[in-house]
Amino acid sequence: MYDFDEIIDRHGTGTEKYADLQMMFGTQDVLPLWVADMDFKTPDFVYEAIRKRMEHPILSYTSIPDDYFPTISSWMEWLHGWKVDPGDIRYMPGLVKAQAFVLNYFLQKGDRIIIQPPVYHRFAQIPRTNGFETVSNPLLRIEDEDGFLDHYEMNFDELENLIDDSTKLLILCNPHNPSGRAWDRATLERLAEIVTRHNLLVLSDEINAETVFYGKRHIPFASVSPEAAACTITMMAPSKTFNIAGIVSSYIVIQNPALRDKFFQWLDENSFDLPSIFAIEATMACYKKGAAWRDEVLRYIEGNIDYVDGRIRAELPRIRGVRPQASPTIWLDCTKLGYTQPELMHNLLYEAKVAFNDGTQFGPEGAGYLRMNIAGPRSVLGEAIDLLKASGKF
Ligand SMILES: Cc1ncc(COP(=O)(O)O)c(C=O)c1O
Predict the structure, then answer these.
(1) How far is the CA of 388 from the centre of ligand 1 (A)?
(2) Which of 32, 61, 155, 237 has a CA 20 to 30 Å removed from the CA of 5?
(3) Topology at the third CATH level for domain 56-289
(4) Contact residues of ligand 1, CB 6 A cut-off
(5) Mean per-residue pLDDT for 224-239?
(6) If you ran DSSP here, which 8-state letter would residue 347 be given?
(7) What pLDDT is attached to residue 1?
(8) Of 75, 124, 78, 72, which Cα lies nearest the Cα of 103?
């Protein structure tokens, strides 16, 4: 049993959630529930593995151990039912960098990229930074019986309309950040059919694949059909589930040799695929010893979803949170409050004194929304709701 109720002081550790408050929000006098990491302890087995390696007096050049890729592939087969040859996996120093590598390697200037906002802001920013054009195919807002956002669906008709000869790649967020939707098989199959017919590559960001709630199983996009496997580059990591983002350990999966071989050679020749000693140790510890811890943390977060959703429905009826199927954040629909986005953020930061992500960080389609991180002690989430309530603005 782990104590997820424990409040851990992260000040003085460079924690982004605190250190970047001023830069992101212009104030530090707020309860920070924004960056998508956990306020729970990184599990013991990760520390034990790193400590054990630290006992050796030399921390120099280290080859990837023979069981590193097989360990990742066994974990994926066990957890997602997805069979991947260990040779189809390469280490990546984070998903954001992996995205930049893929775009720069596979695309030419002038090629267009489709994204489906509201979505993780890097899907727009990395292409922009690297001189590629993105085209938005906004998700469809499906309402519940009270007129709040219930869930998003992909707009396939518009997707077909948007694709032209210069469209080369679609970036998929599976599961979807910020709404927490775990895309179902029918959606992924239909997407696979469309991208295959138009000869598009799919870069599938599956960083939240392991943080799936209520016994649901994550469906890797590449697993839905041989055609999907042939056009997909998948990015995954243990970083979100086991709270080890600071270690920088991710990986990429490519099953089609025509996409894989030269790209892997390019990664190798540039040393982009070389993990640090600690990345190796941490990933292996998570995937060999982490199943029970993962189970416990997911149950605790499910309790947080019930708690936050229950309190919002009972005490803040003018807003509503989308219950996530995956990823420990709640996408708050504040559209009924009638505020402009600057007013919404002002009321959040200066009246309630809480920091959630600004919905428009995920694209203009996020106007009227906030993203609340719920991967922390329940008492802190309760404090955030108390503050929203006391402000009288929500
Ligand atoms: C969907 C998504 N992809 C990627 C990242 C960042 O990945 P990394 O830290 O591995 O670069 C995040 C972080 O919040 C995310 O939400």
Answers:
(1) 28
(2) 237
(3) Aspartate Aminotransferase; domain 2 (3.40.640)
(4) 36, 94-96, 120, 173, 177, 205, 207, 237, 239, 245, 250
(5) 98
(6) I
(7) 76
(8) 124
